[in-house]
Amino acid sequence: MSAIPSVTDATFDDLVLRSSKPVLVDYWADWCSPCKQLTPIIEELAEEYADRITFLAMDTNENSTIPNRQGVLGLPTIQVFADGEMVQSFQGGKTKSALIKMLEDVL
Question: pTM, whole model, 2 decimals?
C-alpha cells in the first residue's frame, strides 16, 4: 500500500497498545478509493511527525480481528492511541489540515 509500516492482528497489541509514544493506525483496503486518496497525506504526516507519533497501516483484507475489536465499520478509518487507549477516531477522507489538528490535539 504505502511506505507506512504495517501492523497485523498478531502485532497490534505490541506495536500499538504497548507503544511508548502515540500511534496512528490507518485501517485500509486495496479496493477503497478514499483510502488511496488518504495514503499520500498520511505518508507526509508520518515524515513530519516521525519523532513524536508512530504511524502504522492495517490491511483489513488480511486482518479482521483487530478492526472488528476496534469497531471499524467503514474505510478509511483512522484511530490514534496514547498509553494503550484510543483517544481519537474518525472515518472517511480528511484533509491534511484536519489530520494535523487531530494530531496536535493528541500531542
Answer: 0.95
- CATH architecture for the domain at 12-106: 3-Layer(aba) Sandwich (3.40)
> How many other C-beta atoms are found inside a 10 Å radius of the C-beta of residue 12?
22
- Report the alpha-carbon distance of residue 10 to residue 61 in Å, rounded: 14
Q: How far apart are CA 34 and CA 23, in angstroms?
A: 21
The mean per-residue pLDDT over the stretch 18-44 comes to: 96
pLDDT on residue 25: 98
Residue ranges of domains in the chain: 12-106
Which residues are tagged catalytic? 32, 35
What are the distances in angstroms from CA 35 to CA 28, 29, 30, 84, 107? Answer: 6, 7, 8, 25, 24
Q: Retrieve residue 5's grid coordinates.
A: 509500516
Separation between Cα atoms, residue 11 and residue 41, nearest integer Å: 24
- Please tell me the distance from the alpha carbon of residue 21 to that of residue 65, in angstroms, as a whole number: 23
